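Re: weekly structure request thread

Next one in the queue (165 aa):
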Amino acid sequence: MAVWLPVLKAALPYISNIVAAALPAFTQRKSAEAAGAADLINQQIAELQTAVTGNAAALKTLAEQVEKTLTALDGGEAELAQQLNQQLSQQLASVQETVARCESTASLAQAQVTRLDGLTASLQMRAEELQLHFARHQTESRNRFGILTLIALLALLLAAIALIR
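Done, posted below.
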């Protein structure tokens, strides 16, 4: 709708001329009755010929204005298409740059995940080593406790034997 607005603005001044010329202003009836029917017809024909000539000139001017408007619209369309192509190219470049940054960030994140996986495995191995060491230490502590208990019992036995003698 907005595209036809300039065409309508260009045509409005000429439309009134076309309408005015298309409606011939015939002579008044009183003068027609006095001059006769033949003169009236000749005068009406002359008026119609003048109106047709005026209409042709107005239509030619209107056609020129419409052609200028359409040429301007075509030029504006080409300019708009070029601007849109430039904007789309810029946006595409921006999207591609953003995708590249996202891929870089994803690579860094994957490297961190791999590093953390290695650290987790290392910590699990260390925890297992500590559990084994703790288990050995408990076994050694029990063995020491058993040996100390045995030594204490032997000492009691020797003391009891020494008392008995």
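The chain has one domain: 5-124. Residues 5-124 form one domain.
Next request, please.
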